[in-house]
Amino acid sequence: MSKSAYMHEPESSEAFTPLQAGGRVLDCAPTRMGALVPTLPKQPLGDLIEQYKDQGYLWLKGFFDPEMVLAFRGRVLSHLGSAGLIAAGTDPRIGICSPQVGGKADIDRRLMEIVRSAAFESFCTQPELVAFMDAFLGGLSYIHKRKIMRYTRPGSSTFTPAHYDLVYLRGGTHRIVTAWIPIGDIPRRMGGLVYLEGSHAIGVKMEQEFAERAAELSPQERINAFNKHMTEGGWVSKDLPDMAQRFDSRWLVADFEAGDLMLHSPYMIHASTDNQDVENRIRLSTDLRYQDVQSEIDARWSNHWSLDDML
């Protein structure tokens, strides 16, 4: 693939703001932190597939109409704002968090309403996205019904520890592609996804080792992230700085914008960082899983996502 199809960011440590995950500060040294490589989506499909296989991810810049994404952000945060999440008198599209957030149970109930709504389904099945995934997977694509939407308040201790997605999808094909969509701008200090460079190969090795250790487990135990061969919750680690050191790798970071689309391998190790936004904005994103429709589908993902579904 021509290097002109990539839009490179500076690699010096000066380009990176200190980030933290669960209170642990990520090392900004060039050997431990780097930049994700953004790609223009209108490249030949074969080149995009080759880059995906090589990197373990694709950051497709401007895939969606940003105004459409921002309008949907406003719609979601208006609904969550009715439970006191958004600062009074502010534009929900901006997503300024209220200094006196209402009850979490009320906000979460409204979040579950959104993920079951026709508006969310429409957002996730936009014709251009469906057509792209059909082509990318080489046939009719299937989107799992279990679609996750996450909001993270600034200053919250909530973050996603390091993991790879196949841990939660062992009941079906391994040919899964995750689509992560930032619903609004997510500069790195807002706690977007970070990826461990080259870790799609590490994930394959981990999964092979797990399969060997899990040979004596029942079929149900083998597909369950919560078993004796995995850490609690299926995470690889909650210590992101230690992981970069342990695997002698770098966390790749980015300033995501409304309209961007991230695709990553089911073996790619990734995490999120803390929302440290100085403008007090809420981070909002969604996680979708695609596969070809002819392959085996993990039945556990055939229901709407809920906060207590233990997956």
Automatic annotation (TrEMBL):
Any Pfam family matching the protein: PhyH
Keywords tagged on the record: Dioxygenase, Oxidoreductase
Keyword Thylakoid: no
A GO molecular function held by the record: 2-oxoglutarate-dependent dioxygenase activity
InterPro entries listed in its UniProt record: Phytyl_CoA_dOase-like
SUPFAM superfamilies on file: Clavaminate synthase-like
Protein's recorded name: Phytanoyl-CoA dioxygenase
Top-level taxonomy: Bacteria, Pseudomonadati, Pseudomonadota, Alphaproteobacteria, Hyphomicrobiales
